[in-house]
Backbone:
């Protein structure tokens, strides 16, 4: 029952960033248009008058860019029965993505060659430290412990991304499937159908990971104080969620010699469904979830790329459970989960 009732899952705003550039030595005219310029330089406000602008990605065939995705999370959990059990964990997970634009089709959808060239994990689970670094020399048994990272590390794949920053498709995942299969204690010779199912499952994980480094942009032209929103579904416990990410153009600024938009983001959540029910003879009663989130995004108008974003969410969930244990004794349990998460994407 735990696997279903406690699928709380942190609601993450996918307000991530990407910036196109070559290697550090290849930046044209020494222009400072990367994420470091935002923290090291004063951000000068500029006026664009009454002009309205479209925010579009401007991919160019042959260009290369690299960016870093960092996710930070903290979770506190308490379980009240005859006694109180508490646990807490914190985690910092970072990915380095290397991208190259291979082609741009007639619909202006760019096909990118993407490779996760580095993964690093630092976690603390109830005082126990856990670390993983993709470049470290691990034994096969140790690598099996981190199979979810090992599978995607250093294996190139393709991603199709449109002008609005939507990852339409990921493909060429066959080598990932073979690598994942190689981690099995007894490697199997997969049938074509089994291999296709494995690739499909990998796609459902790789696509949202890739989407986190792109921003889905509005289709309408924007000016200062322009707003738009994106609605996406979710669920916590027995509640269905309607998550609305609302965006507003706070200001137009200069990053290096180029124009950029500073955009705020705010998350609101509506929920529906009954908080009470019975599953496998266990009565459960979810309290109303408490969810909030927000952040800031910087989009380079002239280069047609996002520069930096930092967004986060807070989720609090509580549920009361009542049912008989294996000895037919009635048990009552209250579980509280609090999760804070933050996503940071930045140009290297």
Residues:
């Amino acid at each position: 029952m735990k696997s279903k009732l406690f699928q709380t899952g942190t609601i993450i705003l996918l307000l991530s960033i990407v910036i196109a550039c070559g290697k550090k030595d290849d930046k044209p005219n020494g222009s400072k248009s990367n994420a470091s310029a935002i923290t090291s330089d004063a951000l000068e406000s500029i006026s664009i008058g009454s002009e309205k602008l479209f925010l579009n990605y401007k991919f160019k065939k042959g260009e290369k860019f690299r960016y870093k995705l960092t996710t930070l999370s903290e979770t506190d959990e308490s379980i009240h029965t005859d006694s109180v059990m508490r646990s807490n964990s914190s985690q910092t997970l970072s990915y380095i993505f290397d991208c190259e634009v291979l082609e741009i089709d007639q619909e202006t959808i760019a096909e990118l060659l993407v490779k996760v060239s580095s993964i690093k994990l630092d976690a603390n689970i109830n005082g126990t430290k856990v670390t993983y670094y993709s470049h470290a020399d691990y034994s096969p048994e140790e690598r099996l412990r981190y199979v979810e990272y090992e599978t995607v590390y250093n294996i190139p794949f393709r991603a199709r991304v449109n002008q609005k920053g939507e990852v339409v498709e990921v493909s060429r995942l066959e080598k990932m499937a073979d690598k994942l299969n190689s981690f099995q204690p007894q490697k199997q010779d997969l049938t074509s159908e089994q291999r296709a199912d494995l690739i499909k499952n990998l796609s459902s994980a790789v696509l949202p990971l890739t989407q986190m480094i792109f921003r889905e942009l509005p289709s309408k032209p924007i000016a200062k104080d322009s707003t738009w929103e994106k609605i996406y579904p979710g669920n916590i416990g027995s509640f269905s969620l309607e998550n609305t990410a609302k965006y507003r153009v706070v200001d137009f600024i200069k990053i290096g010699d180029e124009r950029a938009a500073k955009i705020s983001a705010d998350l609101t959540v509506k929920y529906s469904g009954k908080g009470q029910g019975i599953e496998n003879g266990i009565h459960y009663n979810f309290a109303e979830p408490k969810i909030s989130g927000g952040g800031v995004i910087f989009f380079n108008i002239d280069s047609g790329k996002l520069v930096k974003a930092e967004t986060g969410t807070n989720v609090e969930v509580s549920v009361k459970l009542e049912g008989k244990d294996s000895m037919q004794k009635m048990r009552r349990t209250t579980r509280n989960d609090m999760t804070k998460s933050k996503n940071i994407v930045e140009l290297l």
Observations:
- Residues 312 and 342 are 4 Å apart (CA to CA).
